[in-house]
Amino acid sequence: MKVAELAQYKQILLDLRKKLVGNVTFMEDEALGKSRQDASGDLSNVPIHMADVGTDNYDRDLTIGLIQNGEEELKAIDNALERIGNKTYGTCEECGKKIAKARLAALPYVNNCIECQRLEEEGEEGEEETG
Ligand SMILES: [Zn+2]
Predict the structure, then answer these.
(1) Residues flanking ion ligand 1, Cβ below 5 Å
(2) How do residues 97-124 score in pLDDT, each as one tens digit?
(3) Continuous H helices in the chain
(4) Measured torsion, CA atoms of residues 3, 4, 6, 9, in degrees rounded to the nearest 10
């Protein structure tokens, strides 16, 4: 891949990273804000209804799930930036073939080609089916 192209993808990845970091921080505040409020407030004034507590926990788990996904995406972006640094970006880590430009345009932080991704997904599905 040309240096100019690498620079372009680097910019895309950095923008994506910035957006993602903003989102994760925002979601963390949302998810943890409630419990912080509860902890700092006068506990004797907090009514405890089991139904409410259940809903709160459910919302929080859902948001924390999103944060974890975001963190995985962030890791992938950091990996991609590293690969740009050592000029292996755009090459499949599994089979060493070039990753299609269309795939990189859609998912700039992928580290494998569409064929390897498909194989991986098929493998995972197979494992999940058994049992
Ligand atoms: Zn591959």
Answers:
(1) 92, 94-95, 113, 116
(2) 999 999 999 999 999 999 999 998 898 7
(3) 3-40, 50-85, 101-106, 114-129
(4) 180
